Amino acid sequence: MISVLQFPWLSLLFLLPALGVGAVLLFPRFSHKIGIGVTLAALVMAVGSWVELGPLKIAVDPWLPLLSLDHLGAPLVFCCTVTAAAVLYTMPRSHRTPELAAKFLLSETILLLTFSTVNPWFLAALFTAGAFLPWFEIRSRGFALYMAVSVLCFILGVAAGPTRWFCLPLVAAVLIRKGILPLHSWLPSFFQSARFGTSLLFVIPQVGTYCAARLILPSAPAVTLEIMGVLALLTSVYAAALGLVQKDVRRMFGYFFMSQSAVVLAGLTCDNLGGLAGGLTLWISSILSLTGFGLALRALEARRGLLSLDVFHGGYERMPLLAVGFLVLGLACVGIPGTLGFVSQEMLVDGAVETFPWFGFLVGVAAALNGITILKAYGSLFCGTFTSPFQEQLRPREKLAMMGLLAFLLACGLWPVPLLKGNLSAASILLMERQAAQPPIKTNETPLE
Question: For residue 4, what are the β-bridge partners?
Fold first, then answer.
């Protein structure tokens, strides 16, 4: 049953960043302060909408019925606002320009609209806008080509309508947008070309996974989901292996993200409640932990410039908090005990082995390789002889953002019940939609006369 929210949380959720774009352009002197205020207000709107949703299955906005919220979208909207607020709040001074603030708020507006709707054509328009917005910063032909093909496939899939095989163009669009093998070469290069804040806001929320959950998973044939799951698992191991041998920190982070997001997509192809709920929980955990890990890398890069992993930089004694935050947030991405990632990966593996018997083995291999990558990067960036003459302590804003994300991951890891209830509800609805879309089984039996 569809309910109506008592307060227009969703309308205000995207109107605030949209109005913030205009305010930033009108008052460029205060662009950073305006951006911070808008992102924090959007975070309050996201929390309010999630709280009011409560036990309801799905609720629409009273002002704009096109916008709706359920237990799949509510935590993702919250995570997007957290990511946007944390990235903008900790932005280095050299990047605090009105143009960047306006682009950032516009990107947040598109993201929040995307996770607040289920309309296919509206999703197609938002998918297109979100895909090309980073191009104005990096001006990469390769990136533009990949995104153009992805957008074209997405539109073709939506235009094909609710037929049994209409999902094939959509599958191609999602695989490109997520960087799944063999359509992945744009992703590591994107992290090298774009600013860290732009890359985090573009890829961390995993828009491709959301489009797959809304348009592909409920009605796709079982063989299509199985192929998607196999490709995602192979990508997770492949990217983890490549991330282990990278010398450039940004490329390492790109492969690390690719491996983690591929595991999330593989989890959503499970056909049982536990595995699917584990995949949804891992999605939330990966957004928050990868955001924190990316903020730690950006903080270090802002102090040292472009980072290399083939030398030992040292500096633990001068910045122990940043070193510990880098290590713990990185390990939280791969499911260190005590964090939300540990709970989600346990649920995912326990449930997914029913669908893919070798799922747990591949996920374990990817997690082990990614864990080694984090330890190797930690040793290179924080161990050895310290040579930098600059002060490298974290600023209060950076401390607050990183420690806040870590505290949330630990709190949900120690008490995951409220979050798991919502994810189990969302998983059960997805499974019912998938079962309803499957064709009836034909038999050769004749009715009794």
Answer: 60
Comparing C-alpha atoms, which of 280, 288, 290 is closest to residue 259? Answer: 290
Helix and strand numbers (H, E) in the chain are 19, 3
Secondary structure in 3-state letters for 273-330: HHHHHHHHHHHHHHHHHHHHHHHHHHHHHHHHCCCECCCCCCCCCCCHHHHHHHHHHH
- What Rg do the C-alpha atoms of the chain give, in angstroms? 21
Contact 298, 197 (CB under 8 A): yes
Tens-digit pLDDT profile for residues 269-289? 888 898 899 999 999 999 999
Each residue of 136-174: b (16+ CB within 10 Å) or e? Answer: ebbebeebbebbeebbebbbbbbeeeeeeebbbbbbbbb
Q: What angle do CA 116, 73, 327 make, to 5 degrees?
A: 120
Kindly report the pTM of this predicted structure. Answer: 0.94
Average pLDDT over residues 54-75: 91
pLDDT at 356 > cutoff 80: no
Strand 68-70 with 58-60, pairing: antiparallel
Beta bridge partners of 58: 2, 70
Per-residue pLDDT tens over the stretch 73-109: 999 999 999 999 999 999 988 888 999 999 999 999 9
Nearest to 18 by CA among 80, 104, 125, 147: 104
Q: Please, what's the b/e burial string for 86-116 (b: 16 or more CB within 10 A of its CB; e: otherwise)?
A: bbbbbbbeebeebebbbbbbbbbbbbbbbbb
Report the candidate in 48, 120, 56, 106 with the shortest Cα–Cα distance to residue 77: 48
What whole-number distance in Å separates Cα of residue 204 and Cα of residue 189? 16
Query: Does the bond joining 182 to the residue before it have cis omega, within 30 degrees of 0?
Result: yes
Q: Domain residues of the chain, as ranges?
A: 1-117, 119-437
